[in-house]
Every structure is written in structure tokens, then in C-alpha cells.
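Ticket reopened. Same input as before:
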Amino acid sequence: MRASGEGFTHSTLFVIPHLPMALRAMGPFLSRLRERSMTLLPADQLCMQLPDKVTGLFLVGVGIAAAYGGSLQPPVPGQQIGPEVFPMVVGIGLAICGALIALGIGHRFEEEAEADLAAHSDQPAPPERRSKAAIGLKVLLPPALLLFYVVAVDRLGFVPTGAAMVLATALALGARPKLAIPLALVTPVGVHLVFYKLLRVPLPDGLLPMPW
Amino acid sequence: MDTFYEALRLVAQPDVLIAILLASIYGLVVGSLPGLSATMATALLVPITFYLSPIAAIATIIAASAMAIFSGDIPGCLLRIPGTPASAAYTDEAYAMTRKGQPELALGICLWFSAIGGIMGTVSLIVLAPPLAEMALQFSTYEYFWLALLGLMCSTLVARSSPIKAIASMLIGLLIACIGMENPAGTPRFTFGLTDLLGGIEPIPALVGVFALSEVMRAMATAEPPRLPSRRFGSILKGMWALTLRYPRPQVRGNIVGIIIGVLPGAGADMAAWVSYAMSKRLSKEPEKFGSGHPEGLIEAGASNNASLASGWVPSLLFGIPGDTITAIAIGVLFMKGLNPGPTLFTDKASSMYALYIIFIIANILMIPLGIAMIRIASFVLRAPRAAIMPVIVLLCAVGSFATGNNLFLVVTLAGFGVIGYVMERNGFPVAALVLGIIMGTMVEQNFVTSLIKSDGSIWPFFSRPVAAVLAALTFAALLWPVFVWLSRLRWRRAA
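Engineering reply: fixed in the latest deploy. New output:
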């Protein structure tokens, strides 16, 4: 699921610069379509927001795959109902929902809820002028750091790995080194003390064993 | 009476009392930070509850969630940024009061009526649970199947998004629950040859990913909320008693609506606050004053969200069907601690249940002094820059997920669900429905398949038993409700 989600963003990012060229060739019909897609995806919007058509069709695919995968499950001998029924029911349901979403049904509920929420809260709009790709990479930083943790923690040990993660997150959020460095030095040690010493979670020592 | 004394003894243990106090402070701080919700506060606590006694574990969850729901009101009042989604409904009203120069009044109302709402919700839990438990003893797999499905449908109804996207989210959750060997045949299903997936997706890293990690990801893309100007507050509770006497009706109504919404499986504090605020405005004698800093709506909605928090435990304890996302997490903890939810909990483990009630009452009373202290230091806590808080949360997510099974694959799960949660939220797919789907998937499938095997593949018994028929009707009503809303709006527009 994750990989395909990223795939969509990358392919949209890849396609957008090539759109004008294709449009000139394909006439006014497509330019109308482009106007529509641009209203769906205003430039200042944050990344990873996809048109309903894309998410809907993706869900149709997932639903069909799940139903098919479910139908391949080996039956329980001597019984009509086994592990195949539930994924098939859910998969078909998901495919139907995906089709409805792709057709834009129920979109109005969403607009109303958004308008309601916008009227009630005052979240400041991001004043960013960075490119969408830059924000996209920053958004993916926390999960990337977790994968780094998985790869590195046994070799480096908990405290160094944690310090690197804290430092990276703090700097990405715009912290000055004066804040980020002390934070990166103190936080992993504190977390290690609580989880290793008090809660006895086996965090790996690696290069830097703690004295407790 | 012996059970009651036994319960008192259970609660009076020093570890339980310390757990309540620390969890309360934790809940107040986390709830007050914009963007960190009560659900996230609870999800991050779960790994710690592993290492506590059963009663202390439940106590931390109850105390932290109650405090977080209240303290979400603080940045709402002072900055017009709701700390938790449950505060969003009346943030404007509270902020209008602050602008009029009455921040003490706004915060006092939130605190005082939250505490009363919480206590009323607890009373409803005490009163409603035993008779419902008796009824639940008669339930078979058919009823459980419908009940679980009803809970899932309710969670999609209240999602404040496109109902179809909400249902899709729930179905994705059910599909994720299909992964692993825990299925009717006990064969590996959807594991793609990975041994780590044989046990299925662990709900806790998934929850932490969806609610906490995706919040950090969102912080990466949004601007930092404005700093709170430091100010001194006058007396917080001044005039609360007069307001209690002046607005008895909104208060009672808020409590009742909150209790009802909480008892419904799947619908929680956010919904209670929205419904109560809207109801208060419609039924008020002075609806024109709403939005300009009028206490009435604040009283009703503030009481409502805390009442729903306690009554949300009714379906969780009785049927193992969560009333909202917080109790969804709590159910996991209950199972882990050997307090398996179900009607027999009230007969076999009666003293634990009484202890739970007592903890609820203590937490709601403790909310008043601790809440006042929190309001006094709010300008200090809210000045902590996001760049200092989010890195700590990332690290806690990693360690907490790892600790649930001492397995690094759980951290991969966490990262994956962080991305899934972020992408879904960005595209209007409500994540609460996804989480409830993941948690309840196994239960829905088990009851569904067992029922089908019992009936030899016929679906007739799903509708022929009286209670099952009522639950089925409610489920279909929940499914068709958006269609009804749409049709009635269409007719209304045509008439206009």
C-alpha cells in the first residue's frame, strides 16, 4: 500500500511538467480537462493530495485483488465456508466504494464538513514558497528515520541512533542548532533510562552502552 | 459491599495512585498541545501500560484520556486552535469569550462542566452496564456480528467526511485485519511469504503510526502555530456555581446526548461535541448570541464530550466493541491484562469493574485542581516550540512500537501506517474508521464465519432472531442514512 501511494505522487510529479506539450497536440478537450484537474489540485496545496478519480480507481484495484486473492485461499476440508469468504466480501465492497468515489459520489458531504471545520478553526495556512517536492520529501522524513532506526539500531545502538533521529527531525522542523543539539543529546538518554531501566525493554547497546 | 471495599483497596494501591497522578499530568500536557489529540496521548501510553498492574494500566488510560479531552479546550480558548478534535466544535465560541476579555470564564466553563460531564458519564456507566450485561449473556454470534458491524457503520456515519470514503476506510481496515494466520482455516493469508506477517498486523504500532507519526508528518508540511502571549488569569472557578444554576437544561441535555453518543459503538467525543453544540443553538432561547462568546453552547458541548468519554466504555466493556478510538485502544489493554471484555466481566471480576468506576470519579474530580494548575502554566507549556516536541514523539513512537513485541518489524509497521494515515487523511479518508476496522476485523470475521457455518451457509438466521433483526435494521439504517440526508436535501432545495 505504502509503496503504491508513493508511486502515485511520483508519477503525478513526473507527468505534470510534460502535460503542456501533450495538450497542444491533443486539442481543446484536454485543455478543459486540465483546467478541471488544476482546480482539483491548486498549486499551494500540500503534497500527496490526489484526485478522487485516482484514489477511487486505486481502491477498485485493491478490492479486486483482495477478492481474487481471497478466492485462492485453500478451503477447509468438509466445510463450505472457510477463510476465503470474508476477504471476498470485503474486497467486493471496497471495489464498489472505490468506483463510487471515482465517480465523485458523496463529495458534497466532504466539502460541507471542510467548510464547517474551516469556519470553526483557524489553522494558519502554510506560507511556504518551497516546491511541492521539497515538502513531500520532508513529510516522508519521519517514516524514513524509522526505517533508518530498523536498519541501524542493532549496529549503532539505541542512543546514537536515537540522537540522529531527534537531530534530523528537529532540524527539519526549523530548530536552531542551539536547541537541536542539546535535545538530541538528552532525549535518547532519557528515553533509554525510562524504557531500558524502568520498563526493561531490551534496547540494544551497540557502540555506546549506558552505565545503568 | 465487600466487592466495593475490595475495589477501594485495589485503587488505593500506591502504584495505582501514582499512575493516576502521572497520567493526568501527561494527559493535560499532551492534550493542550495543538495537533496532539487525546487518542494520540492514549496510544503512546500503551507500551508503558504493559509493565503496570492491570488496575494501574486501566487507570493511566482513563486518567490521561479524560484530562486530554479537557485540556484540548485550552489552546482552543486562548489561540483559536483546538488542541483535540473534540474541542473543535466550540472553539470559536470560547475564543470569542477570550477576545471579550473573559478567558477565565471560558476556561472555567470548559473545566467545570467537563468534570461534571465526566462524572455523569460515569454514573451512566454504572447504571447501564449491569442490565445490558444481562442482556448480552443471551447474545450469540449473529448478534455479535451485527453489533460489531453497527459499531463500524456508526464510526463511518460520524466521520464528518464523505460517507463513501469513510466506508472505504473501514473496509481497508477490515482487509488489513485479514492478514495473518488468525482466520477460520489457520492458514497464512495475505502474508506474501513474510514470516513477520504470519501473526497479522499488530494493532498498536498501526494505531501509533496513524495517530502519532502521521501527525509529525503533518507538522513537517504546516506552519508553526502562533505563540501564546503570556497573561495572568483571575479566578477560574468564579461564577461557575451561578452558571450551573442558571443553565440547568443545556447541561442535562449535553450530558444525556454525550452519554447516548458515547454508548453507541463507534461514535465518540468529537461527535458528541458537534451534535451538542448544534442542538444547544437550535433549542436555545437566545440563538442569536451564539458565536459571540455566549456560555450556553460551551456548557452543553463541553459537558457532552466528557460524558461520552465515560459512557464509551459501556460497549467496550460489555461486548469488546469500542465506543470510540480511545476505548479501541483501551480494549487492547484490557485483553492484555486478562480483563477480557464481555458480560462475564461484571460477574467474575466485579471488584475490577468497581475499581474502574472509582478511578473515573477520582480522575474527574482531580481534573479540577490539576486543570486549574495547567491553565496557569498553559502559556509556559504552549510556548514549547514544535521543533522540540515532535522529535521526542518520533523517538517515543519507535521505542513504544518496538516494546509491544520486542521486534523491529513493528517499527516497520509503524512507519508504514504513518504513511498510510497521512495519505488517507490528506485525501479525506477518515482514519478513525480505518483503525476501528483493523481492531474489530478479526471479531467481525469470526462471528460472521461461525454464524454461516452454524446456519449451513444460509443468511436467514442473521435476520430471524429478534435482537439480531433489530441490530440488522439499525445497521442498514446507518448505511442508508447518508442517502436519506441527500434525498431530503434535494427535496428541500426543489421546494425552495
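Residues 1-45, 121-128 of chain A have pLDDT under 50 and may be disordered. The radius of gyration of chain A is 24 Å. Please confirm and we'll close it.
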